[in-house]
Amino acid sequence: MKKTFDRTTFTLEERFKKIGLHKTYFIRTYGCQANVRDTETIAGILEAMGFTLASSQEEADFLLFNTCAVRRSAEEHVLGEIGKLKQLKLDHPGKVFGLCGCMAQEEGVVEEIKQKYPQVDIIFGTHNLSNLPSILHEYYEQESPLIKVESTPGNIVEDLPTVRSQSFKAFINIMYGCNKFCTYCIVPYTRGRERSREKQHILDEINAFKNQGGKEIILLGQNVNAYGKDLGEEDGFTDLLRACAETGIDRIRFYTSHPRDYSSSSIDVMKEYPNIMNSLHLPVQSGSNEVLRRMARGYTVEHYKSLFDEMKEKIPSLTFTTDIIVGFPGESDEQFEETLKLAEYCKYDLAYTFIYSPREGTPAAKMEDDIPLKVKKERLQRLNELVAKYSNENNKSYLNQELIVLCEGPSKKNKKVFSGYSEENKLVNFTGEKIQAGDFVKVKITGTKSYTLDGEKII
Ligand code: 5AD
Ligand code: SF4
């Protein structure tokens, strides 16, 4: 086994267990599922230290922003929110404000916060979550601003305490970091190189969750298809997927796949095991070979289409989602049209679409970008309209069908309506009696919208 970093186990020192007694915490989470999962770990550590959850961010003795650095807009939002806390800090100097996550790994941002946002007391990065007890201890001892950002990816730490946000659905990290270095992306710099968890630890976490009544797991990694490569495994992700399916957990999903490392065997395993859900998120980013080359994605449009065709042929009911960036430096009108053509070809169920955002330190940030923002916005709108059209059409095919929905509870908009995700990963709003969060509910689809389905529980 190739070893590139240390693997350790978390233990909370006795002296840290009382730090949070009579104190409350609140965490604001931004960005991807990796951050959502990190927040669950941070909450677990804080509760093990005696903190309890505050009813609002204003109430909290320790308020933490777990941040995302993928696009500047997300960073600006966080800085705006932190800016608003100035008065709260003046009124309650005893409150502690912290910032962690990907923004904390950016030197420029940390400098900006130090200069302009003195209300931030603690900054710590993505690599030292398990050191949170000692960081807080140090802060409460000295009560002066504390910045702890490690630039080299940390060890893989097992047995971290967790407060899961849902009791029936769990995010399970299978690997951390990314080696792909797509030229626009900051993730390899903020999250470090690919590090896979050992299979047995992953399976233990799944079995423990299942034994507590867990129903659905979502395997997480920036690039799950590369799972195990750093452990010297050839087809590690497929083997892992099979082993996860063998645990008998009701539902398995995984995010995110990369077209470059994708292996046909993983789709065969999806087909073989009914508890691996037939939905796939396969980011394409652009439909132009020239743009893909400058993004350093490592595949062509033809290769992507052949993967798509193979998957649809093997599993015709597969739902397909993607990520697309418009306005990458130098993207011509023709190259953008090629992206539209690809979206027409794949008829995605959903696409997360973004305007390119330059990230300091990435190769693309140095490329000449002469496309006016107005043009980028128009492209985004055209793409979104096309994606909505196909999503709508796909959704219509579910009319009058019966889908199995894992209920998440009352819907956000209407407490009399429940919502949850179907096996196909469609968000379904439905009515019915005697329904609880965590129930599998058979729902007949009675109406469709671009991104959601409506239905009624079948008795
Ligand atoms: N600008 C815009 N979108 C980006 N993404 C990653 N980096 C950037 C960037 N610099 C998008 C990609 C990725 C998703 C998580 O975020 O589409 O798949
Ligand atoms: Fe970023 Fe590319 Fe890695 Fe995804 S695969 S996290 S887009 S570098």
List keywords for this structure.
459 residues; 21 strands; alpha/beta; Transcription Regulator spoIIAA; binds iron/sulfur cluster; binds 5'-deoxyadenosine; 6-stranded parallel beta sheet; 5-stranded mixed β-barrel
Structure description:
By secondary structure, the chain is an alpha/beta fold. The protein folds into four domains: 138 residues, Rossmann fold (3-Layer(aba) Sandwich), CATH 3.40.50; 105 residues, Transcription Regulator spoIIAA, CATH 3.30.750; 119 residues, Transcription Regulator spoIIAA, CATH 3.30.750; 56 residues, OB fold (Dihydrolipoamide Acetyltransferase, E2P) (Beta Barrel). Helix content is 33%, strand content 22%. The strands form six sheets. A six-stranded parallel β-sheet has the order 3-2-4-5-6-7, sandwiched between helices. Strands 17-18-19-21-20 form a five-stranded mixed barrel. A three-stranded parallel β-sheet has the order 9-12-13, with helices on both faces. Strand 18 and strand 19 form a beta hairpin. Helix 8 runs parallel beside helix 9, helix 9 runs parallel beside helix 11 and helix 12 packs parallel to helix 13. The radius of gyration is 23 Å and the shape is globular. The N and C termini lie far apart (53 Å). Bound molecules: 5'-deoxyadenosine and iron/sulfur cluster. The site of iron/sulfur cluster (SF4) has 10 residues, from helix 6. The site of 5'-deoxyadenosine has 12 residues, from strand 15.
